[in-house]
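Input record (Table S2, row 762):
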Amino acid sequence: MVRLLQYADIIVDISSEHLDKTYQYSIPEELKPVAMIGAPVIIPFGKGNRTIKGYIVSLSDEPKINVQFIKPIVAIEEKGIRIESQLIALAYYIKEQFGGTMNDALRTVIPVKKSVKHIEKRRVVLAVTKEEAHQLLATALKKSHKAKARLLQELIEKVEIDYELVIGKLNISRSTIESLIKDGAIKLQSETMYRNPISIDPSRKKTISLNEEQQTAVNTILKDYNEGIRKTYLIHGKTGSGKTEVYLDIIEGIIASGKQVIMLIPEIALTYQTVMRFYARFGERISIINSRLSQGERYDQSLRAKNGEVDIIIGPRSALFTPFKNLGLVIIDEEHEASYKSEMPPKYHAREVAIKRAELSGASVILGSATPSLESYTKAMNGEFGLFQLNQRAKEAKLPMVHIIDLREELRNKNKSMFSNLLRELIEDRLIKGQQTMLFINRRGYAGFVSCRSCGHVLKCPHCDISLTSHNNGSLKCHYCGYEEVMPKLCPSCGSKYIAAFGTGTQKVEEMVKKEFPTARILRMDADTTRQKNSHEEILATFASGEADILIGTQMIVKGHDFSGVTLVGILAADMSLYAGDYRASERTFQLLAQAAGRAGRGELPGEVVIQTYQPEHYSIVSAATEDYMTFYEKEMSYRKLLKYPPAAHILVALLLSKEEERVKRASDLFAGVAKMYLDANLAALGLSEEERGRDIQTSIIGPTDASLAKANDIYRRVIYFKYESYDSLVLLKDFLEGYIETSEHFENIAVQFDFDPMSSY
Ligand code: ADP
Ligand code: ZN
Ligand code: ZN
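Output record (zinc ion complex):
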């Protein structure tokens, strides 16, 4: 029997400044069965007991004030689930499943209220004829006024464009716009003025007819939807197989039935090119969220969504909480991306939360990726998710030819440079032909792992099968168990002296490219060159327009860009991410390489890919080269099953933070101790034998140990890992530990963060 609780904490002003302001009320007997978190209630308020509306945000049996002052709830509205109720229920789910406080969860879900002056929506339009615009464009190009030219070019094609889009996504400054207005070339129009009903030049609307694989996905999903079936689908489509076209058709079907759509795209892939594809199809009915928007602008966006002014919202993780009243579908593109996991508490994963939100609002979910996460693919294999495969590249383009180069072999042939002979030849060939090259440096995770350049041997922890990381003091450490050893002088495997911490920066690569190919025009894209607002987009636009021959970059350059001039992709140190020091390293390597390789040959010309590696036989590299997901999946799953890593089992990380080193050490020891006691008691309750328990406990608690980042900003960091087969058991353990923290005096001034199935290493 479900225990019905006595008291409810109620929030009366649902806006983030007042989220922590709750009032406790008692729940009359007859209302108890319907008093759920998120439920809208009517309560007496203030001295005069006027009745107002509120929402239940938590339930308990403990009065916070003298019971005689606690008033009863008058009524609970049951008709029609409001969006506020849904979001509060979603916050509760996040708090329960991922840890943290209800307050943090509510703050994640409810947009910050900021009063913004109502800004009129403005658009930029041509003030001259198309012929004149073409002349102006020619002049701008001659004077190499790039920004002006870009805007004119776009306006010639699209007639008019949203002002915000021009500033935000086209990277046109306000002064460029003003100067063009002064020239009489363009003008600004506001909402109230006459509006051209056709905002997109119809001749631009490409009529693409879907291929059979694409059409099957669209038809099946829409048919399900119209029959009232709500579920989660995974679209596994190779790079360039036309997933976005599938999304577009499905979205059209969903909004035609009066519902709304949330489309999540990792911010890095949310480029002008991508956004324009959606605009071209849905025009005004779209709103876009990105991190460049101010809080006020974001709030404005969510109001527009709530008022039904838009049907589709596109944005990164946080767009998931858009308060649509009639949500029909959530799409998560590139669902394997680590950016869908929040790095701040509550450390929720957008995929799980999207599925919950869909359940609360009667919507479906589509996950899409060329390299699905093992989690999603496993669910698709189990039949929990519907699965669609898109195996062909949509356009005529063929999959690229891939060469795997063994760098140990290069060294044996006395080639110590970072370019293999083949890659050097191919770059030269492309320079002569005037085709473009992308050079990708795999720098994900740590650059600190230690390997032998002669035999490729990597130093690993004897207990964890995870690479050791070199520390400045000359020692090697395991981030999982704390194992430590001295950095050897010679390779323990072959005795070579070419053993060292690995690390190649983009800057160094740029220098080398300049030296080897002095005539090449080079662009570099990494954290340094994209620090400035919009520079990311600027670099991509420059490369797309053919103003450079070689683009050098980190994983930033592999996402969602469709450069038709690129016929060569070079991956310099493909195995780098294999040693990131966490159990997802192989998966991430496979994803990065498959995505990078997928950048080549997207246009008419066939593509070639060179993968340089010290581990040419590693399964994640071999299967990425052929985009052979199934082989990768099976190998990797057997490894996860063997070592009990997600999704074969689950991991809960507790990160303890404190300014006092001693305190956090003691607290983490205590923490591990009580967790062990709790697990012992529970396993005993499950009827396991002493021996089974012993074994299970051993695999269940790892640590405490210093985090790999043991101290940051004068805050000491300790971690404990709990491994367990059932997620629900870990949730119960987390609940228990949260309760323990609240009552223990050893946890003053110590922050504890939980993370389930971590996407990054600690
Ligand atoms: P993905 O999202 O899977 O990487 P896209 O949807 O971006 O793939 O498609 C890749 C390219 O192929 C795009 O330029 C797109 O316009 C084109 N395309 C997609 N589907 C078709 C089709 N059925 N016929 C012709 N071109 C297509
Ligand atoms: Zn270890
Ligand atoms: Zn060696």
